[in-house]
Every structure is written in C-alpha cells, then in structure tokens.
Design goal:
Number of helices of chain A: 2
CATH topology of chain B: Methylamine Dehydrogenase, Chain H
CATH class of chain A: Alpha Beta
Number of helices of chain B: 1
Order of helices and strands of chain A: EEHHEEE
Radius of gyration of chain B: 19 Å
Distance between the termini of chain A: 39 Å
Number of domains of chain B: 1
CATH superfamily of chain B: YVTN repeat-like/Quinoprotein amine dehydrogenase
Strand order of the largest sheet of chain B: 3-2-1-28
Shape of chain A: globular
Structural class of chain B: mainly beta
Oligomer: heterodimer
CATH architecture of chain B: 7 Propeller
Number of domains of chain A: 1
Helix content of chain A: 10-25%
Strand order of the largest sheet of chain A: 2-1-5-3-4
Strand content of chain A: 15-25%
CATH superfamily of chain A: Beta-grasp domain
Number of strands of chain B: 28
Strand content of chain B: 35-45%
CATH architecture of chain A: Roll
Largest sheet of chain B: 4 strands, antiparallel
Helix content of chain B: under 10%
Shape of chain B: globular
Number of strands of chain A: 5
C-alpha cells in the first residue's frame, strides 16, 4: 500500500526539506488500515515528527489538522479513520494556532 | 524573512537573554554595560517563556524553550551564543504515559548548583517539575511533587496551570522551593522525594478562606543567595518576606501604590534590597497613574521607594510579567526588565537610573542575565 504525506513548512527541518514524503506499508487483507497506522510509517522514516504532530499521549495536537484527501480526520474518526491505497495525508497547521 | 543578527560575547561580558511571545533575543555588552549589541530573533514566531545560561564546569551554554502554538514546546541549547542550536528532537520533556498529561509550556529552566554541573530543573505547565542529571539530554518527572495529594486540586491562574519558579538553596543541596499558580509555594528538604507547603501567612484574596492550606496565587518568589532562608514573594495581591525559608511569611507591602504585580527580584549583594514593579489591580494590570515605576526596598520591605529616573512618567500604561524583572551579578548591580509592550529597560547602578535598551520587541515574557566566563567546552 502506498501512502503520500504532505508536510508543512515549519516541519521541513525534520524531513530534510521534503514537502512530500512517500511511504510503503503492507496491510494484511481484510484489515482496515488507519491514519494512525499510516502515521506510524511516517514516524519510522522521520522519528522527530511524531512529537510535533501528536502529544506524548498520542493525540493529535489541538492546533494541527490532519486531512485524508480533503476531509479532516476530526470529522471522520480521528486516528481511526480508514485510509486506502494511494491516500494523500496532509498535515496542516490550524488557523487557530496563530497569534 | 526576518533578518537574524548574532552577538559574540567575550570573556567578562554581560549577557541578557530576552524571551518574547514571538522569539528570543540576546543583548551583550562589556562589563560597563553602557552599550549593548542585539542578537536575534531566535525561533521567530514562537513564544519563549523560559531561558537560562549554564556557565557551570566551563560551559557557555544558552537554554531556551521555544513553543510553537501548533507543534508544542521543545528544549533547545546553544554553545555558540545562538548561532546554532541543538536539534528539536533532542532533550524533549515528555510526561510519562501513566500521568495522562501533555507538556504545554516550559516556564522555567534552572541549572542546579555549581557542584552538580550536570543537573538541571525545569518548571512546566501543566504544573510539574522535571529534572535532568545528564546536562539536559534526558528529563524525568519529579514524582514526589506530581504525586502530592494537593496536586489534583490545584487550579490554573490567568497564565495557566504553571510551575513558574524553581529556587535551589545554595547551601542545602536537598532543599528546593517551587512556586505554582494557583497552588502556592512548595518546598522539599530531601531532594524532591517529599514536598510540603511553604506559604503560611500568604493571603488568598480570591477565596472565601483567606489563608487556605493551599491555593495561593503566588506570582513570583526570589531568594538571596547569601541569605538563603530569606525569600521575597509577589502575590496576586500582597508582598511578603520570609526569613525562615517559607515556614512563615510577613506582609511587607509598606508604601507601595499597589501590592499587585508579577515580577520580584533581589539585589545580588544585599539581602535587604529587592525590586518590584507594582501594577494597579488584577482588573487593570497596568502601572498605576500611567507612571512606570520600579519600587526598591533597602530595608527588607519596611519601606519601598519609587525609582523613576529614565523611566517614562506620563501615559505609560505598562505591564511587567512574572519573569521579566531581574538583576545581574556584577559588583555594581544591574537591574533589567521588559514590558508587555516590547520595551526593555536597564539600570547599571542598582536601579537609581535607567536607560531603554530596546523598543518594539514582541511582548517580553522573560529576562535573564549572565556574566560570560571563559569557556572550556564542557558538553
């Protein structure tokens, strides 16, 4: 299964400047592959990203939005949201976080 | 993109570390402290509530805790005065899983005593104390305070549920005071294993019981190193002094226009001298009468005198926050403070006269000082 991640500018220091990161994941048949499992693939490539996107308790930070396609996972089941092959997962700072 | 400038402090120089709501700045001068060069902004766009200088064991290390509103707070250190910084993923402060808590903000970074050069403490929000014993590479939660039976009942103040001050006793290695808003002053005498309240006599204006067991809104405590049992306290209404390490506190709000305020600093050489910047009230947190006045006591709080020379005395509705007032260790003491409106003021004659070092900074939330000594490169 192929996953495509879009990384926001403030986190490019963790990915060597890559805005788009692609990852391969093997999903067993008949199991639902989730955003949480997809992000685990991203942390495997760039471990430092995890604590910037999630709190240490494993929740998406309140001012970070994660989209699958054009849907925010806040509306679709959070980290349990299913993803399919070639899903595009975008990590975007929320407008609410500015000051 | 913002232009980042750097400073190159030399042996014997004075260094100011200024944390703001949108980045950190450095100011350096020679020991005369007459002309200052400015470096920064470092971490532009991020709030920097905590900075520190670690000059122990030959280090020349800056610490800062930049906080992205999106991506959280991290610990960063620099051994070249801000030209390069440690990686964001190094030295993270993380709450253990069983606490269910997540780090929101680092309020205080406190290098420990010279004889334990690899020990540092950090006061954070939600209110907790972290300790590092390897120079800041790894941090662990001080469980004795986290497990205190009072802690689940502590309430956040306007600034959040923060452990904002950490004071290490220079003579008793096992004694640490911390101040928490809104909880009060807690003290350990066994290196952090057990803690008890140390705010007897401090009033809680905003509670039905004015002298509760805990719940005082302590804004800042300051200790004089030469007389470690003496501390001064700026409360959410109230100025206090203790001469017995917090076992009892005495009201010393004598002759001040208001006993509301945030910052509190002690003179580096005289335990009878302390500084505050009174604010009008909790409802109107600005300098009274539009006059920016630092108040100084030279008799341990029996009386306070306004210091105004060089400070604006008309239409100056300023706010000085809890970590934005400090002193340096030079023989002729320097006193420094930053305002929420982005001004930075300095005195090099113990507060008698002042000059403005900067204007137009983002809101200042912390000001720290250091005297730069010759480095030996300890990592």
């Amino acid at each position: 299964m192929r996953l495509i991640f879009r990384i926001p500018g403030p986190l490019l220091s963790f990915t060597g400047g890559r805005h788009v990161v692609e990852a391969e994941a093997s999903a067993a048949e008949a199991t639902v592959f989730t955003v949480g499992a997809a992000l685990d693939q991203l942390w495997r490539l760039y471990p430092g990203l995890r604590d910037r996107i999630l709190t240490e308790q494993g929740q998406v930070r309140p001012h970070v939005n994660v989209f699958v396609g054009s849907d925010s996972i806040r509306d679709t089941g959070g980290l349990s949201t299913p993803v399919t092959d070639r899903a595009e997962i975008a990590i975007i700072p929320a407008v609410s976080g500015g000051m | 993109m913002v232009d980042v400038r750097h400073v190159s402090p030399k042996n014997g120089d004075a260094l100011l570390m200024v944390g703001t709501m949108k980045g950190a700045f450095l100011f350096r001068s020679d020991a005369s402290r007459g002309r200052w060069q400015r470096g920064g902004p470092y971490f532009p766009g991020q709030a920097v509530y905590a900075m520190a200088y670690d000059g122990r064991a030959g280090r020349r290390r800056l610490w800062a805790a930049p906080e992205s509103l999106h991506f959280g707070a991290v610990m960063r250190s620099s051994d070249d005065f801000g030209k390069t910084w440690s990686k964001e993923e190094e030295g993270s402060i993380r709450f253990p899983e069983d606490t269910g808590a997540s780090l929101k903000r680092v309020w205080q970074i406190a290098p420990a005593r010279a004889e334990e050069p690899d020990v540092l403490y950090a006061g954070v929000e939600p209110a907790a104390l972290f300790e590092s014993r390897d120079g800041g590479r790894k941090w662990s939660l001080v469980r004795g305070l986290w497990d205190h039976p009072h802690r689940p009942q502590w309430q956040p103040g306007g600034g959040g549920m923060c452990l904002h001050t950490v004071l290490l006793d220079p003579t008793r290695r096992e004694r640490i005071h911390v101040a928490v808003s809104t909880a009060g002053v807690y003290r350990t005498d066994d290196g952090g294993k057990s803690w008890r309240t140390a705010h007897k006599g401090v009033r809680a204006q905003f509670l039905p019981d004015k002298y509760p067991e805990f719940g005082q809104c302590v804004h800042k405590i300051a200790r004089h190193p030469a007389r470690p049992d003496r501390l001064y306290l700026q409360n959410h209404w109230g100025l206090y002094r203790t001469d017995d390490a917090g076992d009892s506190w005495k009201d010393v709000a004598n002759g001040v226009p208001s006993d509301f305020g945030f910052g509190m600093a002690v003179h580096p050489h005289d335990p009878d001298t302390a500084y505050i910047v009174p604010l009008e009230s909790d409802a109107f947190r600005c300098t009274p009468e539009g006059r920016l006045r630092v108040y100084r006591t030279r008799d341990a709080g029996k009386s306070w005198q306004p210091l105004t020379r060089g400070l604006p005395q008309k239409d100056a509705l300023e706010t000085v926050l809890r970590d934005a007032l400090t002193t340096d260790g030079f023989e002729k003491a320097g006193v420094y403070f930053g305002t929420r409106s982005g001004k930075l003021f300095a005195s090099r004659d113990s507060g008698t006269s002042w000059s403005q070092l900067a204007d137009g900074l983002p809101p200042v939330v912390c000001v720290k000082t250091a005297a730069v000594a010759k480095g030996r490169g300890k990592k």
